[in-house]
Structure formats: structure tokens, C-alpha cells
Amino acid sequence: MQKPDNIAFVDGQNVYMSTTTADKPWFIDLVRFRVYLKQKYKIGKAYYFLGFTREEHRELYDQIQEAGFILEFKEHSSAMLGKKKGNVDTDIVFAVMKKLYRNEAFSKIVLVSGDGDYKMLVDFLIEENRFEKILFPDQKRASSLYKKIDLKYRADLNTEPMRKKIGRQKEKGSLGN
Fold first, then answer.
1. What's the pLDDT tens digit per position in 8-28?
2. CA distance 130 to 49
3. Which of 92, 11, 7 is nearest to 42 (CA)?
4. Percent of the chain whose pLDDT exceeds 90
5. C-alpha dist (Å) from residue 82 to 49, 74, 171
């Protein structure tokens, strides 16, 4: 079996909004999703980006880490904590580019988001043969910019078979918290 050396980057805000506001709202089970990423996409490290920290969400942060994700928070001034949307797009793009610049040992990137702000990054990674897949939490809500990308580079997590594989009905311990 191939050593898991691909890296995943999860846009937590995009996942939450896309799954909980889908036609049939659902939640991604953290543990099952992490196992799926490792088995299907040979993910070694999986980074889960959140916009801001709140003490009342400490249990969720612990669950994300216990499921095997590396938790990354967007930096905000203390005056802004909890008051603004946690836009992590540039943080994820910067993290990917830093890994490339530093020639870190990994094969390809898997991105979990439907946000069109990543389109230039995805195009670049495809050109460089460093892109595996973009996983849309809900393809219906994904940016139309991705329609031009070859089908082999994109997948929808919001399908009945995927919901059965990685989903859960209740909120606790899910990516949809």
C-alpha cells in the first residue's frame, strides 16, 4: 500500500455553511471523514482551518484534533474575536504555497471547499502536477469557476453514498458544528 503522503486542507467555515444549509442539511463525522481521506486519497496530514476561537467551542476543537486533523486558526486582533467571519482562504493558500516554496515532502494536495477563491491555486497545482482533488461539501453551492476543471479533479461529498460513508445525523463530533 502506498504511504500516505498527500496533504488535505479543509476550509471549516465553508464546510459548515455548505453542509448545514444544504437542501438536506447534514453533518460530516470527523473520525469517519479522516479515515476516508487517509484511505481514499492517501492523506498523511490533514489541516482543518477555522476562522476564530471561542472558549465555548473548546469541545469541538478537541474533537477535531482527536479525529486526526491539525487545527489551524485565523489570527485576529482580540477586539475582533467572535465578531467577524473567519475567512481562511488566504491562510490556506499561503500554507500551501509555503509548503511548495520550502520543498516539503508531500505528493499532492486535496482541498475541501467549494469557495471560488481557491480557483487560481487549484489551477496552479494542476499545472505543477501537485493537485489530487477538490472535495465540494455541496457541489450545488460550489463556485461555478470549478465547472471548467476536469471531472477527475473534483468530487461532491453531498451525495447519498458519501453521506452514508462519512455523515452523521446529529451535530456532536461533526465537521458541521
1. 999 998 998 999 998 899 999
2. 20
3. 7
4. 72
5. 15, 11, 21
* Residue range 6-168, CATH number: 3.40.50.1010
How far is residue 64's CA from residue 35's CA, in Å, rounded to a whole number? 13
Q: Whole-structure pTM over 0.85, yes or no?
A: yes
Each domain of the chain, given as residue ranges in start order, spans 6-168
Tell me if residue 126 falls in helix, strand or coil.
Answer: helix
- Amino acid 45 reads K
**Nearest Cα to Cα of residue 45 among 72, 71, 8, 95:** 8
Quote the crossing angle between the two packed helices 58-66 and 30-41, to the nearest 10°.
Answer: 30
Three cell numbers, residue 52:
476564530
- For residue 169, give every residue at least 6 positions away whose Cβ sits within 8 Å of its Cβ, in sequence order, or none: 26, 27
Q: Which three cell numbers stand for residue 105?
A: 515532502
pLDDT at 84: 47
| Parallel, antiparallel or unpaired: strands 109-112 and 70-73 | unpaired
Does residue 49 sit in helix, strand or coil?
strand
